[in-house]
Design goal:
By secondary structure, the protein is an alpha+beta fold. The chain has 8 helices and 11 strands.
Length: 327
């Protein structure tokens, strides 16, 4: 019946090119036309210059970043833990690769990293805290006195000498660790802004800090305890350390753990590191004693190389100036 149409009440054979009458089912005629319309639309879409540019840029953006899998971490027992923090710096374009391990301590490991697009041409140091950090917070009560941290509900609380109760949940201890690391980052950033000789910070995420790398492609800067200081530079280094202590005190902070182990030396310049145990002298009762200890340790470290200073007198003067608001 689809070869005929109704004209004047009679069936008349219709031309093949004539459109079918209303209601006539001719799927085989509609399909080619629909396909043709799709072909026209698709061709128009693909030929649009703006669309092509957008598709190209989107494709490049999606495929620009390879999965982060540095060879330096292959086979490490803590590889997954380290990668979980370093990946954040990679995604932020701050690092491009991990070159080698620089130093491994009881609480953290430091890696030398190649700078990413946002730090191109630079070498950066990534300090990654170990999981044991979750177990070591019970030993820091002296330094946490008066410090603001987060409890297991995420609320900021001011600590007493007893610190956070040892029965804190896993979530609570995670907040404690985050607060501890965040405090170190903030203190070192403050120190750098005050002119204290310390590496410049770039980022902090989770259990990792990313900072300026001191050294060259082959050698990391040694700690003060690892080198013999020339007699001609020992006094200059001591004077710079005491000045750093003074500047930090002016920002209401005392390092609290300054020693030959927490000072790097590069090109004759000392750099103070590891601010995790810094204290605010406006809080707690041990600030003056910690200041005196910091100065005494710095003097003792450089005394064998001819540097001289009266540690007690220096600490007393610094404290007096601080109380008078003149530091």
């Amino acid at each position: 019946m689809d070869r005929y149409t109704i004209v004047g009440g009679k069936y008349v054979e219709r031309d093949e090119d004539e459109a079918p009458a209303y209601g006539t089912r001719r799927k085989e005629r509609k399909q080619p036309k629909a396909a043709a319309r799709e072909g026209v639309a698709k061709q128009s879409f693909e030929s649009n210059a703006d669309v092509q540019r957008w598709l190209s840029e989107t494709s490049e953006a999606e495929g620009a970043k390879e999965p982060f899998a540095p060879e330096a971490l292959v086979g490490r027992r803590d590889g997954a833990w380290v990668l979980s923090s370093l990946s954040h710096f990679y995604e932020q374009d701050l690092i491009a690769d991990v070159l080698r391990e620089v130093k491994s301590g009881k609480e953290a490991t430091v890696f030398c990293c190649a700078g990413g697009p946002s730090a191109e041409g630079l070498l950066l140091a990534a300090k990654i805290y170990r999981p044991r950090m979750f177990r070591s917070l019970s030993n820091d009560a002296q330094y946490r006195e008066g410090r603001v941290v987060r409890n297991e509900s995420g609320k900021q609380v001011k600590l007493t000498g007893k610190g956070v109760p040892g029965r804190a949940s896993a979530k609570g201890r995670a907040f404690q660790v985050a607060s501890w690391i965040g405090y170190e980052y903030a203190t070192q950033a403050l120190a750098y802004s005050l002119g204290v000789p310390t590496p410049r910070l770039y980022a902090q995420t989770g259990n990792g800090l990313l900072m300026e790398y001191l050294g060259d492609a082959e050698t990391a800067s040694p700690r003060l305890c690892e080198i013999d200081v020339g007699r001609g530079e020992a006094q200059a280094i001591l004077d710079m350390l005491i000045e750093g202590v003074r500047l930090l005190l002016g920002g209401h902070r005392i390092h609290g753990d300054l020693s030959a182990y927490n000072v790097l030396v590069w090109d004759g310049q000392p750099y103070i590191i590891d601010f995790a145990q810094a204290v605010d002298p406006r809080q707690g009762d041990d600030a003056r004693a910690l200041l005196a200890r910091d100065v005494q340790r710095a003097v003792a470290a450089l005394a064998p190389y001819g540097a001289r200073a009266d540690a007690r007198a220096v600490a007393d003067n610094l404290w007096w100036e601080y109380l008078q608001g003149g530091v």
